[in-house]
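Researcher: I'm preparing a figure for a lab meeting and need a structural model of a single chain. I don't have an experimental structure, so a prediction will have to do for now. The sequence is pasted below. Please return the structure as C-alpha cells so I can convert it later.
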Amino acid sequence: MQPSTHSGNSVDRRDWQSKMEQLKTLLNEGRSYD
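Model: Understood. Here is the structure written out cell by cell.
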C-alpha cells in the first residue's frame, strides 16, 4: 500500500485500520460459528 501524501493521510490510515479491525472481527466470528 503506497503512502499517501495528501493532508488527510492520518485520517485515511485510521479509517483503514478500523476497517481491517472490523474485517478481522467478522472473520473471527465466522470461524467460531463454523
